[in-house]
Write a structure and sequence with these properties.
By secondary structure, the protein is of the alpha/beta class. It folds into two domains: about 5-45 and about 290-385, Aspartate Aminotransferase, domain 1 (Alpha-Beta Complex); about 50-285, Type I PLP-dependent aspartate aminotransferase-like (Major domain) (Aspartate Aminotransferase, domain 2, 3-Layer(aba) Sandwich). About 40% of the residues lie in helices and about 15% in strands. It has 14 helices and twelve strands. It has helices at about 5-10, 15-30, 50-60, 75-85, 105-110, 130-140, 165-170, 185-200, 230, 255-270, 275-285, 290-315, 335-350, 375-385, and strands at about 35, 95-100, 120-125, 140-145, 170-175, 205, 235-240, 250-255, 325-330, 350, 355, 365-370. The strands form three sheets. A seven-stranded mixed beta sheet has the order 2-8-7-6-5-3-4, sandwiched between helices. The relative contact order is 0.17.
Length: about 400
């Protein structure tokens, strides 16, 4: 039996959050009271009304059989109605929306629809969500990284992409509000993206997982709001952060009908769709009055203010986000992302994510997630104060 792994697996970088889990487990085993600000997994429970809908749906024998890989018509209609109410974007639920088993699944599978070999380039932001590159790698394509820097407000410089790369590019990934930097993009930037995509015949994939996790009255836009966007791209939506449903694995892709159709074709061959009881629960979430989302924003606003003010008070340069539940923090002089992350874990029992784990331009930063109560964030600041 030959157990040698495939070349694509050998090329994979260590998945960042698996390594974080390992280091956290080692600290816990040593008896450390760990404050985990590493992985962006909400600690707030899924709202009760969503859980109750799931309980009801699980008991329905109609949902015990194979689902459709593109999603129930009622789920797709609920997603379309949500986009209409929230963004003013009108979508055909039959042709312009596909249910996905969490946006991570869709992001990983999407390149299979369009990437053939190493001649096909995928434009990927860095620092960024690792799965954009991993999906490209699995599809056999070539990743070209677009650096996100503070000097450019953590937006990619489209003009810096070489013309020969742009000519070979088939897909561009974007993510605003952004993980890990928490940066936001406006309509002006998205219009530039549409023009660039038209010029070079590139498919734009906008990962909008954090669209509802916003503060201080800010409303994150949809890429699809921009004139011409639907001609060149699609948008990936997730219920994970909006409704504290990370473990439920449910989301949707919306936009250009031909592009959505290609994703549906991939999915029909690699999965059998999401359990329809989960889709029923998701429908309840999307069709609700969204008061649960307002409560989520209230909680994270308090946590954000507690952490950012605390970090600034002890001399750390922490950016105050107007979206996402991440705080992007410059490491102190004399440290790298890795050395500072190791220091705060070993000396303060705090797990945070080294910025360079999201890509080389993330060097010099750490990411902290607002996934513990405000009191624990206060304690984290006090622990940091003791080691700085």
């Amino acid at each position: 039996m030959n157990l040698e792994k495939s070349q694509r697996l050998k090329k994979l970088p260590p998945y960042l959050f698996v390594e974080l889990d390992r280091k956290k487990a080692e600290a816990v085993a040593r008896g450390v009271d760990v404050i985990d600000l590493g992985i962006g997994d909400p600690d707030i429970p899924t709202p009760d009304f969503i859980v109750e809908k799931m309980k009801e749906a699980v008991a329905n024998p109609a949902y015990h059989r194979y689902p459709s890989s593109q999603g129930m018509p009622r789920f797709r209609q609920a997603a379309a109605s949500f986009c209409s109410r929230r963004f003013g974007v009108e979508l055909d639920p039959e042709t312009e929306i596909c249910c996905v088993i969490g946006s991570k699944e869709a992001i990983a599978h999407f390149p299979l629809a369009y990437i053939n070999d190493l001649e096909d380039v995928v434009l990927v932001p860095t620092p960024g969500y690792p799965v954009y590159h991993i999906g490209t790698l699995f599809a056999g394509g070539t990743t070209y990284y677009m650096p996100l820097t503070a000097e450019n407000d953590f937006l990619p410089d489209l003009g810096a992409i070489p013309s020969d790369v742009a000519q070979k590019a088939k897909i561009m990934w974007l993510n605003y509000p952004n993980n890990p930097t928490a940066a936001c993009a406006d309509e002006t930037f998205f219009k530039q993206v549409v023009d660039f995509a038209r010029q070079h015949e590139i498919i734009v994939c906008h990962d909008n997982a954090y669209s509802e996790m916003t503060y201080d009255g800010y409303k994150a836009p949809s890429f699809l709001e921009v004139p011409g966007a639907r001609e060149v791209g699609v948008e990936f939506h997730s219920l994970s952060k909006t409704y504290n449903m990370t473990g439920w694995r449910i989301g949707f892709v919306a936009g250009n009908a031909e592009i959505v159709s290609a994703l549906k074709q991939v999915k029909s061959n690699v999965d059998s769709g999401q359990f329809e009881a989960v889709q029923e629960a998701a429908i309840a979430a999307l069709e609700s009055d969204q008061s649960c989302v307002e409560e989520m924003r209230r909680i994270y606003t308090e946590r954000r203010d507690t952490l950012v003010e605390g970090l600034r008070g002890i001399g750390l340069d922490a950016m105050k986000p107007k979206a996402t539940f991440y705080v992007w923090v410059k490491v102190p002089e004399g440290h790298t992302s890795a050395s500072f992350s190791s220091l705060v874990l070993e000396k303060a029992g705090i797990v945070c994510t080294p910025g360079n784990g999201f890509g080389d331009p993330g060097e010099g930063y750490i990411r902290m997630a607002l996934t513990v109560p405000a009191a624990r964030l206060e304690e984290a600041v006090e622990r940091l104060k003791g080691i700085l």
